[in-house]
Write a structure and sequence with these properties.
The chain has 204 residues and is α+β, with helices and mostly antiparallel strands. 20% of the residues lie in helices and 47% in strands. Strands 1-2-3-4-5-6-7-8 form an 8-stranded antiparallel β-barrel.
Length: 204
């Protein structure tokens, strides 16, 4: 009699376990006190953990970007800032030059779409001519996700050259260069430069 009761109990538990759906199983311990769902019925707990724990992103930049023709950025996703992300980076350009960049991006979420606007500051050192440019830049773009942590971003914008300084060892300060002509040339440098940036990123 005792054995039959034990067997009946095992069968009952097995039937209940087999008939429980994934969504039903997740009803235990996955809702806020108000009853709001924390994640979707088909999402695994590992995915939830990974999404919440990632706060940094590394990205490679190509194009005619504020970072240069080829660059790299390290970003802080800052979930507590509500859509604002902060980036710092370094890049190279074929002029030749290299530049350091600091920027912020604000992301929008319209029905699952992910556009952004950005603003930043860059310092560009044109090594061949020995000048240093100070720049502000603005950008707008969009992000596509092809994996949970891999993203592709396209951004279009403008870079504004606020100041151009000639370094003391620049060949532009040689004895064979007319100082007045140099100042006129520096004053005619285009202050608005269009930019296009392709970025490939991974969060971690």
């Amino acid at each position: 009699m005792k054995g039959r009761s034990l067997l009946a109990g095992v069968v009952l538990v097995s039937v209940l376990a087999a008939s429980s759906s994934l969504a039903l199983a997740k009803d235990f311990g996955v809702k806020s006190p108000s009853g709001r769902r924390i994640y979707a019925p088909g999402e695994r707990l590992e995915e939830l953990y990974e999404q919440d724990s990632r706060q940094f992103v590394i990205e490679v930049v190509m194009g005619a970007a504020a970072e240069g023709n080829l660059g790299v950025n390290l970003g802080w996703l800052a979930p507590q800032l509500g859509g604002l992300e902060l980036y710092g980076g370094f890049g190279l350009q074929t002029n030749p030059s290299h530049q350091w960049v600091a920027s912020g991006r604000y992301w929008f979420d319209f029905l699952g779409l992910r556009p952004f606007i950005a603003m930043g500051y860059s310092v560009q050192n044109l090594t061949a001519v020995g000048t240093i440019n100070q720049n502000l830049f603005w950008e707008a773009g969009y992000k596509w996700r092809w994996h949970h942590t891999y993203h592709f971003t396209l951004g279009l914008g403008l870079r504004y050259v606020t100041d151009v300084d000639v370094e003391p060892d620049s060949p532009l300060l040689g004895d064979d260069v007319d100082a007045d002509a140099l100042q006129r040339e520096l004053g005619q440098i285009s202050t608005l430069v269009p930019t296009i940036a392709f970025r490939f990123s991974r969060a971690f």
